[in-house]
Design goal:
39% of the residues lie in helices and 25% in strands. By secondary structure, the protein is an alpha/beta fold. The chain contains eleven helices and 13 strands. Strand 3, helix 3 and strand 4 form a beta-alpha-beta unit. The two termini are 35 Å apart. The chain is elongated. The strands form three sheets. Strands 5, 6, 7, 8, 9, 10, 11, 12 and 13 form a nine-stranded mixed β-sheet that branches. The mean pLDDT is 90.
Length: 302
Amino acid sequence: LLAISSKNQPERVEQALARSDLLVPREAFFPVVADWGPKSQAMRGILSAWNIGPDSVVYLDDTPMELSEVQAAYPDVTCLRFNAKDPRAVWEVLLQLRDLFGRPAVFAEDRLRAASIRSGTGFRELEQREASGAFLHGLEGVVSISYRKEPSDKRPFDLINKTNQFNLNGLRLAEGEWLARLRAAGSIALTASYEDKFGPLGKIAALLGEQQGRRIHVTSWVMSCRAFSRRIEYHTLESLFRVSGAEELFFDYRPTERNQPFQQFFHEIGASACDSGRLRLSQQEFSQGQYELPHQLTESLQ
């Protein structure tokens, strides 16, 4: 994701971005904040638009004072100076960016991310204007849940290892461990995709566990922050109970510094602690909650 913070007049920034010789197209930048306020204030707006934590962001500037101001406001942001007058320094910064953001594979969801964040702005504006129930039903959303185990699909594995906020326990998996769990007897895995009138989000959730009779032991469950506020997690539990025939779910839940959204969700659905230290939720308890499921659901079974 790329954003711009410029102490400048908006029309001058747009004029610069309209040049035909730019290596990065104008549409790659969102948001573009052009005003005369502090850069830390612009950073706050960018973080809000992206809905990610400051520890995932690198801030580039050619002015030490601006770097210091942003660093003081957001200590977790990685601040790097871009000194255009020193070719060696420019090269070193580019190497740092490659090491921080380079990845061996690009998923379809990566290509959708920038567009979905733009549409997310419209989503939040409309959400604020309309009552939540009517708003969600008016999204014309479709949740697609797949129970097919596809070891070649690395997107669920990537989600588990990169997601922080809606994350069952914050535990990361090595690729070999991920594949072994998929192939284990009784293993159950699902991925959830989502789209609505604002556009597709792609695969945004993954769950991994083991079924023993009428019980499922959930070891990993994550959902991208781009999918928040759409009640996809409720659709996921409803589908899991119904498709698997399970009467009880046991979750390897562990609170972390960043998974408050998951903590709040478990509180809302009334999951309770059991002797094993896991959290327990029964199908009967979940059904009694009569949770609103506002989207169309499609399912792909094994």
